[in-house]
C-alpha cells in the first residue's frame, strides 16, 4: 500500500499575464543588444519571490525587464517614461535626465509592470510559453488596476492556436465541389 502523500494541498503555481509590482535585484549593461537588463522579481502579493523560488528549484532566472539605449526618439521616449515610473514609485530615487547616471541606483527599487505570455518553439521542438515584461508603470497604477493586460505574442513561426475541432462532420451539407463527397469504404481501390 502507498503511504499518504498529502496530495490534497499540492498545487502547481502557474503565473499568468497581468500587472505586478516588481523589485529590481540586479542591473547589467548588455552591449550586444544595447540595453539595460534588469533582473526583477515580484515584490508583493501571492506571487511574491516567484522567480527567486523558480531559480532555487531549476537554476535559471525567469524574468527580466529591458530598457533599450538606442538614440532614436521612440526608444528615448520609452526610456524616459520608464525612469519617470521609477521616480514615481520610489520617492528617494533621482535620475539626471541630461547627465551620466549609475545604472546600479536602480537596484532594490520598486516598479510596476504589465506582463504578457510569449509563445515560442523550444530547442526540443515543443511549444513553450514564457512570461515577459511588456511595459513599466508607476507602482500606484498597478495597485489601482490602471493598466491593460497585453495580448500574448507568438514567435514568427507560430500562430495562435485555433480551437480544437470536436470531430463532428456535417454530412447534410451540400458537397462544396460538385462531384466530390464522402467516400465509402467499398469505393476504395485498395
- CATH class label: Mainly Beta
> How would you spell out the order of helices and strands?
EEHEHEEHE
Question: What structural class do the secondary elements suggest?
Answer: alpha+beta
How many strands? 6
Assess the beta-strand content as a share of residues. 25-35%
Q: Determine the number of helices (DSSP H or I, runs of at least 4 residues).
A: 3
Rg calc: 25 Å
What is the number of domains?
Answer: 1
Per the principal axes of the C-alpha atoms, what is the gross shape? globular
Which percent range fits the helix content? Answer: 10-25%
Can you describe what's shown?
- The protein is of the alpha+beta class.
- The chain has one domain (13-96, 105-154): OB fold (Dihydrolipoamide Acetyltransferase, E2P) (Beta Barrel).
- It has helices at 50-58, 73-89, 139-144, and strands at residues 18-30, 35-42, 64-68, 110-121, 127-137, 153-154.
- Strands 1, 2, 3, 4, 5 and 6 form a six-stranded mixed β-sheet that branches.
- A hairpin with a 4-residue loop joins strand 1 (18-30) and strand 2 (35-42).
- The radius of gyration is 25 Å and the shape is globular.
- Residues 162-181 have low confidence and may be disordered.
Amino acid at each position: 500500500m502507498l503511504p499518504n502523500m498529502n496530495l490534497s494541498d499540492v498545487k502547481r503555481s502557474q503565473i499568468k499575464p497581468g500587472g505586478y509590482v516588481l523589485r529590481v535585484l540586479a542591473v547589467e549593461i548588455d552591449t550586444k543588444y544595447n540595453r539595460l537588463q534588469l533582473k526583477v522579481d515580484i515584490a508583493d502579493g501571492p506571487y511574491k519571490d516567484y522567480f527567486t523560488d523558480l531559480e532555487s528549484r531549476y537554476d535559471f532566472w525567469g524574468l527580466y525587464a529591458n530598457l533599450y539605449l538606442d538614440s532614436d526618439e521612440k526608444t528615448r521616449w520609452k526610456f524616459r517614461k520608464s525612469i519617470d515610473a521609477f521616480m514615481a514609485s520610489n520617492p528617494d530615487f533621482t535620475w539626471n535626465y541630461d547627465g551620466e547616471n549609475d545604472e546600479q541606483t536602480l537596484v532594490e527599487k520598486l516598479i510596476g509592470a504589465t506582463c504578457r505570455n510569449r509563445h515560442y518553439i523550444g530547442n526540443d521542438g515543443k511549444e513553450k510559453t514564457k512570461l515577459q515584461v511588456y511595459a513599466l508603470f508607476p507602482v500606484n497604477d498597478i495597485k489601482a488596476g490602471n493598466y491593460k493586460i497585453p495580448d500574448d505574442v507568438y514567435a514568427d513561426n507560430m500562430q495562435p492556436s485555433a480551437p480544437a475541432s470536436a470531430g463532428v462532420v456535417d454530412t447534410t451539407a451540400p458537397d462544396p465541389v460538385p462531384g466530390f463527397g464522402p467516400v465509402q469504404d467499398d469505393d476504395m481501390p485498395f
